[in-house]
Design brief:
Layout (H helix, E strand, L loop, with lengths): L1 H19 L2 H11 L11 H16 L6 E2 L1 H17 L7 H12 L3 E8 L4 H9 L2 H7 L5 E8 L6 E9 L1
Parallel strand pairs: 1-3
Antiparallel strand pairs: 2-4, 3-4
């Protein structure tokens, strides 16, 4: 009797398991895993000033000005939040930021500059221009960029992330 009941329950339980996983659930999970385009970003005056300074420098060399992209600025802001939360200045998780930008925006090249504790946008830019690697990014063959400058509330020190992309 127990064996007969067990034989009847097992196939029913198996069918219930198969039916309970609908295709709409897997579609939602797949779409949630895909990175989404961030369209809104509220630039502060320091960020806009730095963008202008970078483009003025590029144009003075005969290079194309770069177009600000909100999604790239958002990814820059995420990195500033990461650095502030850990009290470090680094390029941690750059591969993930780069992959996101490549997937979402179709970029073919992504580079990044970071800085810390510069009082003004112009002082951060001057420091980058005096560093061969950072200068190469600023003067590189890019088409778009994103900028974030955030202040760490307890110290008042600024964190800068500037991501350059080529589409």
């Amino acid at each position: 009797m127990k064996a007969t009941l067990l034989r009847a329950i097992v196939p029913v339980a198996f069918m219930f398991t198969l039916i309970s996983c609908s295709s709409s659930d897997s579609t939602e999970a797949t779409s949630a895993a895909r990175p989404q385009l961030i369209q809104d970003y509220d630039y502060n005056s320091d960020e806009l000033q730095l963008a202008d300074l970078i483009n003025e420098h590029r144009v003075s060399l005969g290079l194309n000005p770069l177009q600000l992209v909100n999604h790239v600025s958002y990814k820059s802001e995420e990195h500033n939040a990461y650095m502030i939360s850990r009290h470090v200045v680094n390029h941690d998780l750059f591969a993930e930021r780069s992959e996101n930008i490549i997937e979402v925006l179709g970029a073919v090249k992504v580079n990044e500059n970071v800085a810390y504790n510069f009082v003004s946008s112009s002082s951060a830019l001057n420091a980058w221009l005096n560093s061969p690697g950072h200068k190469a990014n600023i003067e590189g063959s890019f088409t778009h960029f994103g900028i974030s400058i955030r202040v760490e509330e307890t110290t008042g020190k600024k964190y800068y992330t500037n991501i350059f992309i080529k589409k």
